[in-house]
Amino acid sequence: MGGALLGGLLRSGWAGASELTVIEPVAERRDELAAEHPGLRTVAGPEPGLLDDAGERLGGAVLAVKPDAAEGACRALGVTGVTRLLSIVAGVPCLRLEAALGGDPAVVRAMPNTPALVGAGVTAISGGSFATSGDLAWAQDVLSAVGTVVRLPERLLDAVTGLSGSGPAYFFLVAEALMEAGVQMGLNREVSRTLVVETMLGSATLLKETGSDPEALRAMVTSPAGTTAAGIRTLEARAVRSAFMEAVAAAVERSRSLQR
Hints:
This protein is an alpha/beta fold and 260 residues long. The chain has 12 helices and 7 strands. Helix content is 53%, strand content 12%.
């Protein structure tokens, strides 16, 4: 996800490669990043004065590490003098990051999702104890490079994790099942994939651009006693709607448990 955000910032023109510095302890990955983004500065660890003279827009750090490394990374960042941090680490609350950083740091916590890889993600952000409206605006500016941003209280980020954070996997599972169904009905796999992908994309676009409720759009497709009605009846009989709701609830509970 950190790589996706870096790519999005550079593609959108938010900053030039030479204006950003990536801290990456793995030498092989540093070499890969340097090759992918000519001019990008990469270092093995935090350095004193790393953010000196960075300016209001660039004077902050983005934390993109595994959850069990988050607090250690924050403690290490102390040598840079960082006072503003955007965390895209799942399951680590602002209070823990603030304590690890020390002082009164402005921490903004974010929950992005994988469509950020193609600039079509959606991210929820929440400010910590010392974050101001200016800090939230900065974080939103950064994350807008890879998609849509919404602001929510931190207590709702677990719900975001279960819905949009895990959501792409739910859609991919549906796509997988529909593609297989097409093959079973006699279509070749390439045609089945094209039909499913374009149907999902078109349906999402229709839902977004019309602003209509999904129920209304579903009814528009479902003629009485028609083919779609037969399919919907089977899905409802298999409790698919309930299964999705329970899946989101399970993911939310798992997100909460990671913070205990």
